[in-house]
């Protein structure tokens, strides 16, 4: 009898196992199929035209604490970098697939959506009951409107939303896989602020996490509660400073698997991949950016610090020295574009990539 032939099947790789586990344990967003169909049509259209296409991810990802989510953890990102960069990519002839956190800044509308307390501030009453742009805003608004209409009419911009970290990862994987036919004409520009920690579904409460014992009697699995509140029953209506430790909410988060390796090697192996690295400690920024590049073997890491991200970034690329890019004339720029609110300042953040402002 012949010896059995050793199996040629390679042992499963840890990244693939982590991917299978994560994506089967965390349900996809309800619109994933619809978004995938839109993305496929968009990508195929531009691939057929031989046009470069960039997938921009933008904004923060939420970490739900409950399956029927009332509360979630979030982060600071408003999507300024992503929305502003999208306008520059369009200007450079790229088709832009803009995967963004729902209600974060969008290309073009970003100039108006968060710039004053209310977009109505940009409008005034015109003749015969019409509504028109205020005189001081009209020229810029016309310029932005034309760019927006042009992108929309030429089918150059597809905008898809996500909310939670798992929505984001499902969407990213599906879209990145669709980008394969673009080969090197496909660019992934990962500017979203992606949570590093999450609550896995098997530890997530189905319903709103309760802060008192008041509903315990309704839960059949629990001991029936006394019908009247006594000193044993905890409620928080008196804002007591002596809350028992056992009643505090302790959140136990797992690390979100790092899928950049899967992205680089499996989902979009021929695409050019640009990731961002955000830190708050200037001493570790470049080290962490270089570490990420060495580990995931992609094309470029753009590093930025929370406090200076609107004015400077560092490009860390394989085989090249680190390159800092700074907006050289911040005070001048501030006055020239009339910065008066944080949103004005934020609108410049994505313009670090290029020197001249987008404004006409
Ligand atoms: O959205 P925003 O313009 O306020 O911030 C942009 C940014 C800092 C989120 C982005 O430049 C970035 O660094 N993204 C990656 C963050 C990270 O996961 O490290």
Automatic annotation (TrEMBL):
Recorded GO MF terms: catalytic activity
Q: Which domain of life is it from?
A: Eukaryota
InterPro entries cross-referenced by the UniProt entry: CoaB-like_sf (IPR035929)
- Entry coiled-coil feature ranges: none
Q: Signal sequence span per UniProt?
A: none
In terms of SUPFAM superfamilies, this protein maps to:
CoaB-like
Q: Output the GO biological process annotations, alphabetical, semicolon-separated.
A: coenzyme A biosynthetic process
Give the protein name, as stated in the record: DNA/pantothenate metabolism flavoprotein
- Organism from which the protein derives: Cercophora newfieldiana
The uppermost taxa in this organism's lineage are:
Eukaryota, Fungi, Dikarya, Ascomycota, Pezizomycotina
């Amino acid at each position: 009898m012949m010896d059995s032939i050793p199996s040629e099947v390679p042992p499963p790789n840890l990244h693939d196992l982590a991917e299978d586990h994560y994506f089967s344990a965390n349900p996809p967003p309800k619109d994933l199929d619809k978004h995938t169909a839109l993305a496929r049509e968009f990508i195929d259209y531009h691939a057929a035209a031989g046009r470069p296409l960039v997938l921009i991810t933008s904004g923060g990802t939420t970490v739900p604490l409950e399956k029927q989510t009332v509360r979630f953890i979030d982060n600071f990102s408003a999507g300024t970098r992503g929305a502003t960069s999208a306008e520059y990519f369009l200007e450079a002839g790229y088709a832009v697939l803009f995967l963004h956190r729902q209600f974060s800044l969008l290309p073009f509308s970003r100039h108006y959506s968060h710039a004053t307390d209310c977009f109505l501030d940009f409008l005034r009453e015109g003749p015969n009951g019409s509504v028109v742009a205020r005189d001081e805003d009209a020229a810029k608004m016309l310029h932005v409107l034309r760019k927006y209409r042009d992108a929309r009419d030429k089918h150059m911009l597809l905008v898809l939303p996500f909310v939670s970290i798992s929505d984001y990862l499902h969407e990213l994987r599906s879209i990145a896989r669709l980008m394969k036919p673009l080969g090197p004409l496909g660019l992934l520009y990962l500017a979203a602020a992606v949570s590093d920690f999450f609550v896995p579904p098997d530890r997530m409460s189905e319903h709103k996490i309760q802060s008192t014992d008041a509903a315990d009697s309704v839960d059949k699995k629990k001991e029936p509660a006394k019908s009247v509140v006594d000193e044993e029953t905890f409620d928080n209506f008196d804002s007591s400073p002596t809350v028992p430790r056992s009643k505090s909410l302790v959140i136990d988060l797992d690390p979100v698997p790092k899928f950049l390796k899967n992205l680089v090697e499996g989902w979009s192996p021929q695409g050019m991949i640009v990731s961002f690295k955000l830190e708050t400690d200037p001493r570790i920024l470049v080290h962490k950016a270089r570490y990420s590049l060495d580990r995931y073997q992609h094309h470029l890491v753009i590093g930025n610090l929370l406090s200076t991200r609107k004015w400077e970034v560092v490009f860390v690329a394989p085989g090249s020295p680190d390159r800092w890019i700074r907006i050289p004339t911040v005070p001048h720029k501030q006055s020239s574009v009339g910065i008066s609110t944080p949103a004005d300042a934020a609108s410049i953040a994505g313009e670090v990539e290029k020197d001249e402002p987008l404004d006409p």
